[in-house]
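step 4 of 6: structure.
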Amino acid sequence: MRPLLRVGAGAGFSGDRLEPAAVLAQRGGVDYLVLECLGERTVALAQLRKQMDPARGYDPLLERRMDLLLPLLKRHGVRLVSNLGAANPIAAGEAIVAIARKQQTPIRVAIVTGDDVLSLIDPDELTLESGAPIAAYGELVSANAYLGVEALLPALQSGADVIITGRVADPSLFLAPIAHEYDWPLDDFDRLARGTSIGHLLECAGQLCGGYYAEPGRKEVPDMAHLGFPFADVDAAGNATLGKVEGSGGCITLATAKEQLLYEVTDPFAYVTPDVVADFSTVTLRETGPNRVEVRGAKGKGRPPKLKVSVGYHAGYVGEGEISYGGVNALSRARLAGEIIRQRIGKEFPDMRIDLIGASSLHGRSFDTRNQPYEVRLRVAARAATAERAMVVGEEVESLYTNGPAAGGGTRKYVQEQIGIVSTLLERERILTQVTLREWSRDAQAA
Amino acid sequence: MPKLHDLAHCRAGDKGNTSILSVIAYRPEDYPLLVRRVTVQAVAKHLEGIVLGEVRRYELPGLGALQFVCERSLGGGVTTSLAQDAHGKSLSYALLEMNV
C-alpha cells in the first residue's frame, strides 16, 4: 500500500507569515505545499499594479516567499501549488524562474491562465449581489473566473515543480494535487466533495491551528507566537487526518476543526465550488490523538454548470481621520468632536461614518453598558470621488487639535482608493484555460 | 441568565455583504438548548441595527453547531464598507453577548 498523500497549507492569505511554509517543507514531510494568497479583492488590486507596470501584477510577497522556499522544495522533494500569480501568472512564473536561476536551482514552472475573463464579460449581465447590471457599479478593473481542478490537472501532469495560477477556488488548490495523485475521475462527486472539505479546512492555514480562535481563559491555544500551519494525510478514498508539525505552536482540536469547517460557508448542505456541490452536513470529525483530527463523510451532488466570476470596479476613494481623548468625560468629548465634523463637512460627504473606537465602533453600540471607557478614539470615514476630496476628511479631524474639545491627541489621516467587488456567472465552456511552461536548468544555460 | 458565551463558541466569516456566524456548543448536551433558544428571531433581534437583511439558520446536529447566514450585515459589502471591521470578523463576539 502506498503511503498517504500529505498536503500542507503554507499560507492562508496574501500577507500571511512566511516561515510556517518553510517549517512544513523542511520538517513536515509534505508531498505538496499549497499557498493560498488571493483574497476577494486581491486580484483587482493586482490588476491595478499590472496596469502601471506590465511586468508586475503578481503577489507582492512572491519573491520573498519563493526565495525562502525554492531550495527547500528541491531538497525535500515537495511540489508547490499557489495562486501567487494573481493578475499576472505568466510574469509570476517568470519571476520564479529568475529566482531559481539566481539560486542555480533547476526548475520547471507550470502556469495556469484563463481565469482573466474581462474581455468576455457583458456589462449588461446581472450581478448576484443586487440583481443590478455590472455596468451600474462603475468602471471595471478586472473580471476573474474561479477555476477548478480541471484547469490545474494538466499543469500537475506536466511534472512541474511549481504550479502557479491566478484566480482558482481556494479548496480546488488543494483538491487538484489530491485528485491528480489518486487519479480521481472528475465525476466521482463524493470523493471530490471529501477532497473539497479537506481543502476548505486547510485553506486558511493558521485558522485551523488556533489562529482566529484563541480566547484566554476560555479557548487556550499554546505558543501562538510560533503558530504552526496544518497538513492533511489523505487516502485514496478522500478520508483524511489533519495534523501539524511536531514542536510548532497552536493546536488542532475538534473545536478548531468545527470552526474552520463552517467558516464562510453560506450553505453547509450545498457548498459550491467549480468542481462539486459539497454537502458538509454529513462530515464527521474525530480526535485520534494530540493535534490529530480525522475528517470523513462529505457528500457530493454534481457540479455547477456556470462558474462564479469576481468583478472588480473603481469605487472612488475613502478618506479617514482619527483623534483620541482620555480621562474624565472622554466619551462626551469624542462625541462632541464628531458632532463638530458632521456640522462642518457632513453635507459635502453624505456617505460618512463617525465611530467612537473603544465604545461602539465595531458593533454600533456596546453590549456592555456598565462602564464608561477610560479612553475613546474618534474615527471619521467618508467616501469621495477623488483622492483630493477624500483628503479633506483627515484634514478636518486634524484641525480638531486646536479647534475641538479639550485634550485631543494623536491624530492620523489616511486616503485609500476603493475597489469594489461584485459577482456574476459565466458558462464553463466559455472559459478557456491554458498551461504554459517556463523552466531553467544548468544545461539550458550551457547551451 | 447565562450568556451564549458560556455555552458556545462562535466564528464569523464573510461573503460580500453577508455575515456567516457559526455557533458551536462546547458540550454536545447543550446543543438542543441552543436549537431552542438561539432562533432566527432571537439572533435577528439581538443583532438589530447590525444585521439589516434576512437571517437563515442551518442545524448541524452532527457537529453540535448552528450556522447563521445574515444578509446585509457588512455595511454594503467587505470591499466598499466604511466600517473599521469591514469583514465583520468581530461580530462573533457580539453574538456571544446574547442571553440564552
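step 5 of 6: annotate
 - Residues 19-75+93-100 of chain B form one domain.
 - The mean pLDDT of chain B is 95.
step 6 of 6: archive
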